[in-house]
Design goal:
The relative contact order is 0.08. This protein is elongated. Helix 7 packs antiparallel against helix 8. The chain contains nine helices and no strands. It is mostly helical. It has two domains: 100 residues, no CATH class; 102 residues. Helices cover 67% and strands 0% of the residues.
């Protein structure tokens, strides 16, 4: 996670400096937009996503108005998502929405950002805030797009998130039971009493919450 944040900060610094980069990354310059685009696609196909990121910086810095940028950004968003680098995926999705978001594609972009947040949840007990944030995003998506084609997937995401939240509350309550703090345990069990999920609905998943439901 720290490495990913450092990469994002590096991107922001590089963009601010008009695309400067290390000699060891990409030493070419002043190339046509199609050249950089093909380099991005080739690097992604070869699973060299770091190199593709650098080629994107060259494309953006040398051809800021190129129509190829739109496709390149989405290619990189999906590539990072496939590599389980969800913060970087969201970085590119934010970039895409800022540049190209409109009424025709905003629903898709918002769903992809929601998917990236959900896929980024690795352990229920370590990602409590991300779980709550993703629940909020899911509810907001359902409110904004009540007839969305993605509604079944968003509903499935919400169910998985509520399951994780329920398990977390129950484990915290059990911990307070062992510490002989019944009032504290009751607070968390009361939360579960108001949940749409019941323990009988839950099959204990593996270490991760998400499984493979969005593959």
């Amino acid at each position: 996670m720290i490495k990913t944040k450092q990469i994002i900060l590096s991107f922001l610094s590089i963009f601010a400096l008009s695309g400067c980069m290390k000699d060891s990354d990409v030493t070419e310059f002043n190339k046509p937009a199609m050249y950089w685009y093909n380099k991005i696609a080739h690097s992604i196909n070869n699973s060299n996503i770091d190199k593709a990121d650098n080629y994107y910086i060259s494309l953006k810095s040398e051809h800021i108005k190129s129509p190829l940028l739109q496709t390149a950004i989405m290619m990189l968003a999906n590539a990072h998502m496939n590599k389980e680098e969800y913060l970087l995926a969201n970085f590119y999705l934010d970039e895409y929405e800022k540049r190209y978001g409109d009424q025709n594609n905003r629903e898709y972009i918002e769903f992809m950002k929601l998917k990236a947040s959900f896929m980024g949840i690795q352990e229920v007990y370590k990602d409590q805030q991300l779980i709550q944030d993703t629940i909020d995003k899911s509810l907001l998506f359902s409110q904004n797009y009540p007839n969305s084609q993605y509604t079944p997937l968003v509903d499935m995401i919400l169910i998985r998130l509520y399951m994780g939240e329920y398990m977390l509350n129950e484990n915290i309550a059990s911990l307070y039971d062992r510490l002989d703090k019944p009032k504290a345990a009751k607070i968390y069990r009361d939360k579960n009493n108001n949940s749409i999920i019941k323990m009988s609905d839950i099959k204990i998943p593996p270490k991760t919450l998400i499984g493979k439901i969005l593959d």
